[in-house]
Amino acid sequence: MRVPIIAGNWKMNKTLEESVRFVKDLLPLVEPFRNVERVVCPPYIALAGVADALMGSNLKVGAQNLHWEEKGAYTSQISPTMLDGLAEYVIVGHSECREYLHETDDIVNRKVKAALAHGLKPILAVGENLAQNEAGETLSFVSSQVRAGLAGVPAEEMANIVIAYEPIWAIGTGRNASADQANQIIRSAIRDTVEALYGAEVAAALRIQYGGSVKPGNMAEYMSQPDIDGALVGGASLVVSDFVALVEAAARVKGA
Length: 256
Ligand code: PGA
What we know:
45% of the residues lie in helices and 15% in strands. By secondary structure, the protein is an alpha/beta fold.
């Protein structure tokens, strides 16, 4: 049984003070839904404050990115060692980092391996852009991103990985992929690729999220799909009542 996982990716939103206030408000409202794993991914500047506010709770913390080296001359970067004790999860390969920070598949793969080596659980984000989607390249492209992102990752680490399928054309646009469509790509391009790489058991245990304009109003629809195990959520995760509604919908449809 795969435990559903909802992760809020706050991107470049909320100050330290706003972040801490948000999780203090959110925590008591999502605590009852223990059959759904819940993660908030605040900006780096708020990680320590949020981790402190959530210490001992079952609302988990994720970082939005990391560098693959432990330390060194990488101005502005945050290493896996620095995340120790602050985050359990880390988003890797988000399309905004691939696009604006020019993160290649090779960089994403180094980050996945560095996260795992330091006991962090990567949420590996993959997804095609609009042109690729319209050209019918979605399955082959997403599958190649999965293969590249996981290169050199041993089977025994796969239990610590979550994959998020986020079609770029659906992120922050209000133009979401239909639940059916998303499930089909998740099954064929992600779960089947992982099965080819690691076998049926690993593929069946892997948690795969959908992301891209997920809202309280469409969450239940996604969660009703057999291969969708949760969501990576941007906009709707910034509002306490929406976050709670997402978790509630996941618990209702698929609470483990
Ligand atoms: P969105 O963002 O929910 O605002 O579309 C999702 C994401 O980028 O993770």
